[in-house]
């Protein structure tokens, strides 16, 4: 078998088993499979892997590093121009984002899952408004607030008690659409406990922001727990594409 065919077989098998895992998790939680989106996370893997996922039916992708995302978006834009792919795809920024990347990210991202400060929200609002008026995007930028479940500011995220002012600020920003909440449980914690805290925070937010229905929660290791506690989007990398190289910064 050719190298590319082998990779296709590998990713196809992995995608089938992640879809089966997600379906089983939904069934066990008494939820509809269609209520929980699978967001493949392609960070650290080449555009060719994302293209394979596209061939297998995926139309949304999660990236966590801005520069790397820009390269993959360019690859897909080229493929669309040459007619190699027909359907539009949506790119989600799921990793920590610096304010100086707001202008760039507003050009390619459908949604940002990791907004955790008013300053970042303001920068994204300005950038999205600019991109809208330049015709670089057609719809406001969807943003999710990243919630800190352990209150450790180094990991990013907003403590559950401080969500309301940021939610209101995003709601009133014309370039943004407040879509919901996201979190990554701290290492070594009990995911059921953590996702339950997140679910409660989301229910409170929904009372005043009924359209913020997204709850981005669950990854390779804990998607079942996330589905039990109301996740509407699981972000899965490792189970689809394999383990990433360890990076040191
Ligand atoms: C990398 C990443 C994921 C995917 O994690 P896996 O354990 O590989 O499935 C999910 N969410 C965020 C925020 C990530 O950075």
The whole-angstrom Rg is 18 Å
Order of helices and strands: HEHEHEHEHEEHEHEHEH
- Briefly note the structural class of the backbone: alpha/beta
Number of strands: 9
| Shape annotation | globular
Strand fraction band?
Answer: 15-25%
Mean pLDDT: 96
Bound molecules: pyridoxal-5'-phosphate
Counting DSSP H or I runs of 4 or more residues, the number of helices is: 9
Task: State the name of the first-level CATH class.
Answer: Alpha Beta
Q: What is the name of the CATH architecture? A: Alpha-Beta Barrel
**CATH topology type:** TIM Barrel
Distance between the termini: 37 Å
Helix-residue proportion = 40-55%
The major pleated sheet works out as:
7 strands, parallel
Q: What is the CATH H-level superfamily?
A: Alanine racemase
State the domain count.
Answer: 1
Ranges with pLDDT <50 over ≥5 residues? none
Cofactor: pyridoxal 5'-phosphate
GO molecular function: pyridoxal phosphate binding
Keywords: Pyridoxal phosphate
Function: Pyridoxal 5'-phosphate (PLP)-binding protein, which is involved in PLP homeostasis.
Q: How would you summarize this macromolecular structure in one to three sentences?
A:
By secondary structure, the chain is of the alpha/beta class. The protein has a single domain (3-241), classed as TIM Barrel (Alpha-Beta Barrel), CATH 3.20.20.10.
């Amino acid at each position: 078998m050719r190298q590319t065919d082998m990779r296709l077989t590998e990713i196809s098998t992995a995608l089938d088993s992640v879809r089966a895992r997600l379906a089983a998790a939904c069934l066990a939680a008494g939820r509809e499979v269609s209520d929980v989106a699978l967001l493949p996370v392609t960070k650290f893997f080449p555009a060719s892997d994302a293209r394979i996922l596209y061939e297998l039916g995926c139309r949304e992708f999660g990236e966590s590093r801005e520069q790397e995302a820009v390269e993959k978006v360019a690859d897909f834009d080229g493929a669309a121009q040459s007619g190699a792919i027909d359907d539009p795809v949506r790119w989600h920024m799921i990793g920590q984002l610096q304010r100086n990347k707001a202008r760039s990210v507003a050009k390619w991202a459908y949604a940002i899952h990791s907004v955790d400060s008013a300053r970042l929200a303001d920068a994204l609002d300005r950038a999205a408004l600019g991109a809208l008026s330049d015709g670089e995007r057609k719809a406001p930028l969807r943003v999710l607030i990243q919630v800190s479940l352990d209150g450790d500011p180094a990991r990013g995220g907003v403590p559950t008690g401080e969500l309301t002012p940021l939610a209101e600020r995003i709601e009133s920003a014309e370039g943004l659409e407040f879509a919901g909440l996201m979190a990554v449980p701290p290492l070594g914690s009990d995911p059921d406990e953590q996702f339950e805290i997140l679910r409660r925070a989301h229910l409170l937010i929904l009372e005043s922001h009924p359209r913020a229905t997204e709850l981005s929660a669950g990854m390779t290791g804990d998607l079942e727990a996330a589905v039990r506690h109301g996740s509407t989007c699981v972000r899965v990398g490792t189970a689809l594409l394999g383990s990433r190289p360890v990076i040191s910064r």
